[in-house]
Amino acid sequence: MVRNIVLLGGNSHPKLTENVCNILGIPPCDRILSKFSGGESRCEIKDSVRGKDVYILQSGSGSVNDNLIELCIMISACKIGSAKRVTAVVPLFPYSRQPDWPYNKAGAPLSKSIDTSSKKDYTFESVPATPRPGGPRSSGLTNGVNGLAEKLSKTNVTDRNGDYFPKRSDTISSLSSNVSGGANPDRALTSQPSFTTHDYEKPTNKNVFQPKPGYKQWVALAGTLVADLLTCAGADHIITMDLHDPQYQGFFDIPVDNLYGKPLIQNYIQRNIPGWRDAVVVSPDAGGAKRATLIRDSLDIDFALIHKERRPIKFNEHRNASMMLVGDVANRICILVDDLIDTGNTITRAAKLLKREGATKVYALVTHGAFSGDAVSRINASALDKIVVTNSVPQEENMRACPKLEVLDISPVFAEAIRRVHHGESISVLFQYS
Amino acid sequence: MANEIKLIAGSGHPELGTLMASRLGTRVASTTHVKYSNQEMSISIGESVRDEDVFILQSTAPGEVNDGLMELMILINACRSASARRITVVLPSFPYSRQDKKDKSRAPISAKLMANMLQVSGCNHVITMDLHASQIQGFFNVPVDNLYAEPSVLRWIQENINLDDCVIVSPDAGGAKRAAAIADRLKINFALIHKERPRPNVVGRMILVGDVQDKVAIIVDDIADTCGTLAKAAATLNEHGASQVYAIVTHGILSGNAIDNINQSCLSGLVVTNIGDKVERCPKLKVIDVSGTLAEAIRRTHNGESVSYLFTNAPL
Lengths: 434, 316
Known about the structure:
The complex is a heterodimer.
Chain A: E1 5-9, H1 14-24, E2 31-35, E3 41-45, E4 53-57, H2 64-80, E5 85-90, H3 144-161, H4 172-178, H5 183-190, E6 218-219, H6 223-233, E7 237-241, E8 256-259, H7 262-272, E9 280-283, H8 289-299, E10 302-309, E11 322-326, E12 333-341, H9 345-356, E13 361-369, H10 375-380, E14 386-390, H11 396-401, E15 405-408, H12 411-423
Parallel strand pairs in A: 1-4, 4-5, 5-7, 7-8, 9-10, 9-12, 12-13, 13-14, 14-15
Antiparallel strand pairs in A: 2-3, 10-11
Chain B: E1 5-9, H1 14-24, E2 31-35, E3 41-45, E4 53-57, H2 65-81, E5 86-91, H3 110-121, E6 125-129, E7 144-147, H4 150-160, E8 166-170, H5 176-186, E9 189-195, E10 206-209, E11 216-224, H6 228-239, E12 244-252, H7 258-264, E13 269-273, E14 285-288, H8 291-303, H9 309-312
Parallel strand pairs in B: 1-4, 4-5, 5-6, 6-7, 8-9, 8-11, 11-12, 12-13, 13-14
Antiparallel strand pairs in B: 2-3, 9-10
Helix pairs in contact in B: 1-8
């Protein structure tokens, strides 16, 4: 029984709230949390929060925007209700991973060769185009080897992205034909298949957007914004788990406790994977290498890495998003380790590659199982033998749909973190046991 | 090229954006709004906003208020990080405007929260229309222009209704001022309905103050949500002998079974502004175009002219 503490659960994950409450020995805070018929969220807190230490549990799953605004409203309601301190407990942080679509990993625009036939369209009103990689540095220098390479690549690139770039930049005539007006892209998008954060791997989806010629298009990043919104609503402290980017903590001006799923995953490996001492820990991309090596270090087993080559390569090779394995996995058990599984694209492809390289069994241990889109059916059909996630987002439905899925309970970790934050004890101790 | 009007429209109501753009002699900046399968959204702005005067229009569709809000805030933040000179949010119907006070213990003042969140995302100016409570302007630390649909409403009444035996009715005490102002401008009589509201979206008893016998009653209000109030008010007016009942509201949210409520009610017509995006039309629904007022407000704000002219006049 912990005193003077109020645990308020959002609508996103009632089961986790219940579990954490049971462990802490307190009843969950009574609240009304619904929507007005107009779609605005309605929140009323029934129990007193005056002078209390309030913890609000809401995960970034399901309808992310609803949950985020709901969380902000709850925080604000507690603040206005004279709560002493409000801590947002967000197991899966919303908008923590924004993709680099439609750009490739290097951040450069997709290469494009200048269509020579459009030279005719040149008028004196035209503004010089913004120089971009792939375009000629000046009109006289594209001969020799360079010109050959471009000619070779042109067939391929223009075939795929024929209508992606305008014929030629910035002449008045091409501008007017390229005006897309805010309304049209939206309407066009509704007929598109669903987008995923892996869309840079689907070249077909790159065709839908037509930026103003010469303008380097970029994608808005909501990371700082979400941090600002939570702070502005009145959160004094954030508890989250396995942030996709560790730098995310720096977006906040308030303390952020980033819990790790690593101890849970490590325990699972030691208890449930027979012959784990001879297994190989594999990171499905370079970004997760650090996470995987940490597990390798504490378990003292081998490590391999899958390198994703996302750059569109010149010439006629279709090597978009090809994968390379670094390390030896032949006749061994592979344990893929990652922080977030969304569409399951990366992890299923990695599993396929590992099986092809001779792995006997492939496990995937992932902290957050968001499973959006057709992720579950993709995993069912994949070469993965077992997939283990935590219940940072509700997994009941996925459990029913996916026989390969196993769920680890994170409520003890969060309950302990809440207890320690409340009493002002160290959190880092939580991660020192093995 | 610097410091020109750059109009960006959210996905809530693209038609309004196009209308306003054509009045401003510009076009809506091309943007992509993508919703990923994990329901997070991503936005990219297809043209440069560096050093431009950016106006972001967002009208939140019913049922997707929170999505619209997040989209708006991401747009604002995107423009700010793309070095826009000034970011003005054109939010014709301010979301959460009815939760503007702490009416119960521990109830949130969501309107204040929205004001804070918009400012945190980086907006420098807000243009809105017929705020539910004009005190919401005080929630902001940035300038707020609260426009009125009243001039457009007056014009509609003058053009469509015979003013000889007409009476303006306010459906609740809160809207009395708004209705009285219209009645004064038209030099006609005014009546008031007192209502009791036990729970949100539910209306109790109604008492009519004033005479509506054999007259055309025009109910004037700011928000029509489920239209339960309007239907009941219309029934009350009918009982008291009104020959015809019209209702004019600025914000036609029309959520839930609003359309059914209107169709079954004794209203002869419901007039809304085109701020809301209504997918299912109903035969009794008539629409006033206020894009002129909004566009003119943008033009005046951009050129540093006075906006107060618009409070009494509707641009043609």
